[in-house]
Amino acid sequence: MRKKQVILVIISSLLLSAAAHFFFIQQWLDGYFMIGPNDGLSQMIPFKQFIYEQYSNGNFFYSWAFGLGGGFYSQLAYYFSTSIVFLATAGIVFLLETVQWIDSPDLLFWADIILFVSILRLSFIITAAAFAFRYMGIGTTAAFTGAAVYGLCVMYVRHVIFWEFFTDAMLWLPILVLGTEKIIREGKPGWFIAAWSLMFFNNFYFAYVHLIFLFIYILFRWMIPLSEQECTKRKQLRLFFTAGFISFCISAVSFIPAVYAFFNNHRPAYEAAIPFFRMTDNMLYASKYIILPAILLLFLFTKTLYKERTYKLFAWLTLFLMILHFSPLAASVFNGFSAPQYRWEYVLSFVGGGCVAAGLQSLHTIRIKQLLLPAAVAGGLYLLMAQLMTRVTGLAFEFQRQLVISVLLFLCVVFLLLLYLWKKQMYLLLLLQIGIVLSSLVIVNEYEQLAMSERFGVNIVSRDFLQSSEYNGTEQQRLINQIKKSETDPFTRIDWMIDFRNNTPIVQHFNGTSLYSSIFNEELLFFYWHDLQIDMRRESVSRYATLGNRTNLHSLLQTKYWMRDKQQTVNAPYGFVPFAESERYIVFKNTLPLPFVRTAQDVFYEEDLIDRSPLDKEHAMLSGVVLEKKSGKSRFLPKEKNIIHKSVIRTKNAAYTNDHLEVKTDNGGITMIPPVPSAEVKDYYVHFDIQRMDGSGFALKVNKYRTTRKPASSIYKTGINTVVIRIPAAEKITIQLPQGTYKLKDLQLYEEDYRELHEEAAKKVTQPEVQWDKNKLFIHYKNETKEQYMVLPIPFEKGWLLKINGKRKQIEKANFAFTGIPLQNGVNRIQLVYRPPFFIVSVILTVLGFIGASWLIKRDR
């Protein structure tokens, strides 16, 4: 490609990208953002802000403010911590902030620039695809048209709005195909190494998706050779494996910690049946994932085009991936053999774009009469799908506008195609290509407005919304700032989040007790689900939230403040007293706090507490330390009595027999009347196992505490049916449920007088000197009372290196999910340093990878 053509492609890609964002440019001018109200605001924006702040302050690995604490470099590698597009953006923003051309970026800033980053990213995607198609022998204008079909796919818009980091994969895919072709045609591995290094480094999940596609592409490529002078399959395999291994080594500094974080996360197995085939949507005009352009349908039914090899390759790939799109089993495979997720369809758009480009290249070989049957078949498909939408789904009216637009575009493309085939003039071919690009622009802008803005609520995400009480209200922030000003302890946590926005602590800049992320430390999940059975008010595999209003846990985990809407104060934890309030919100302060550094003489072991109640486990954590690995005799722990057999159980608008509960009207259920408690009893812990027999999701209330359970079919269901809820002591305890049939068993009821907590809080212990600098923690502790262990409320996680008095020691998992340090008598100079798992090995592999790449490229040159 000549230099002028390169420049023209780049400029055209940028202009086309801007045109593809026309709807959102208008929205942005009116004060709205190109981002979804759910994951976009709950994850994408907060994580960008958080990572930028950490990186710009020189902290690259660990943060106490990441949920309950965690290695964000590895756990957020799925999102942005290793995203090349984000790192480039952050670098530019940091430079502009350093020279004081912009103020310190906030959430509004990151929401603002999504549109501009998206325009640039899409222009790079179109350019990369055009170069890949051009290398395969397709003319420049045809290659650009095919690249436009790829770049202007609806999945790009969907991903930018919901999960922006997904769209980076669309940039690496054309480079991967280019690198693969370079090996097959020339035996040169440079582009292949570059593509895989970028993908491995950028995001392990989409590297996996591309690996599946690579196998498919190579298989089809071997069945359909494109030239007579390609490398032997043996040489290709050698280069593929060698270059792939080198790419893995180059990216190891990112890839290995990210993959470790993925495997150290826990997702319950997806138990629902996954069918091999199911009609999931209408790809002609009403799909959330992919809408096939009219020209592609016409080409796929044109027999003559299959005589040309490049077209045949892309056409067969397109047809094969179209079939896979309708297979939930394939969607599961692309999602790591887990729940079916339709995230890979941009690959179908790419091969579809290649099919269009190759078809345009060979269009001159077609006679006008050869197009009549394809046009009739394609037109019939539009009518057939419209009928099916009416009869099967009943959604035809909802998508009437999309149908009309798609049919009109189809007719326009057919007219331009017939006109070219009639006259065979180059200007008509150019006009046809312009028509194809314009039709893609119309579809993508309509999708932005009708699907993304109106149906998925993007039209509510405005500057005002981001400053409202539903996201980051001024009234809320004033109370948070008041807490910060009054509190000198840097480790203090605040139990507060806006409903369903578990990353509120990141948004409002405080140390919180909640997190929403697809990947985080599984020890914390097990701590919530199994060990302490903490109710989060919303069942989810990708969230943890608050501490169930359980004072013992608040004190153990440094939660000194509890903030809520005034209507929810009835559930305030025991020992928390009013501290500050505004018109709508109130803050309570913990009167029974415990120090950040705690030591213990008494040791308990997890295996001895397996059958104990969560309340017993809390008492063990307060009275000593609970260790995972048993190395001695456990201290005796008094067992709290289950008083359910002393309680009277009655039903209300329900029937309860043999663990079978039939609720006849909403808010019916059972009432437990416990024996009259002593004056020392402050709270009850209610424990039961519950399932709805029809598998539907439901909400339940225990007195005035409300929580929700997901449907049995949900891919975000934890699989844990046990519920433990703390409520203030009352004369009666009601469990209220929606109308339906339930399996309710293992009812337990415990009284809590907080004797253990009061004893611990009353101890006058001199806190050792603690210094925490980024990923390094220093503690100077003088052990004069023969304490056995030090316990820190830092989640137990691979990556921490412990030294005591200069000697390497092993960290132990303590209190089910946190950090335990064995102590020596006398002075203990403790040093904790965190690096991502296998980081040193990863760095060495990266250096060796660059050396290997240089050697391989020079050798083949």
Automatic annotation (TrEMBL):
Repeat is among the record's keywords: no
InterPro entries the UniProt entry points to: Uncharacterised_YfhO
Highest taxon above the source species: Bacteria
Residue spans crossing the bilayer: 76-95, 107-126, 132-153, 191-219, 239-263, 283-301, 313-334, 346-364, 371-390, 402-422, 427-444, 838-857
Swiss-Prot/TrEMBL keywords: Membrane, Transmembrane, Transmembrane helix
Claim: Transmembrane is one of the keywords in the record: yes
UniProt-recorded name of the protein: YfhO family protein
Organism per entry: Bacillus lumedeiriae
Species lineage: Bacteria, Bacillati, Bacillota, Bacilli, Bacillales
